[in-house]
Amino acid sequence: MFIPKRHFVEMDEMTVVEMGELIEMYSSAIKKMRSLGLVINEKAIERFLFFWRLRDTNFEETSQTRRLSHFHMHLTPDVEGLFDPLLTKDARDWDPTRLAGNRGQTTVSP
Predict the structure, then answer these.
(1) Distance (Å, whole) CA 102 – CA 56
(2) 10 Å Cβ neighbour count for 77?
């Protein structure tokens, strides 16, 4: 996990210097992860995920907890099926062109 020293919520609040530091940290971390020769379920890890999550609300319905608003990024091995429990079978069945027609609206339905 990459957590900046300065508190901010959105990625676009990062300064140019902070973005440069993030890229340097990513570069070092991915080199290290690749050099480890990670193996999960007897398969060599050859893919990685680098991502962040943006929440519009701080309240987590499922756990009934409040989450802090702060920016951070994750770097993790990408294992086949990693997100399967999170996705519904028809998660990909929506029309992305609908987003273009919804400029200015606050909700988008799949």
Answers:
(1) 18
(2) 15
Domain span holding position 73: 1-58+69-79
92 in a structural domain: no
Q: Looking at residue 83, what DSSP letter applies?
A: T
- Dump pLDDT digits (tens) for 68-107: 888 889 888 887 766 666 666 666 666 667 666 555 544 4
Alpha-carbon gap, residue 7 to 69, rounded angstroms: 9
User: Is residue 36 in some structural domain?
Assistant: yes
Distance CA 51, CA 73 (A): 6
Q: Judging by DSSP bridges, how do beta strands 59-60 and 39-40 pair with one another? A: unpaired
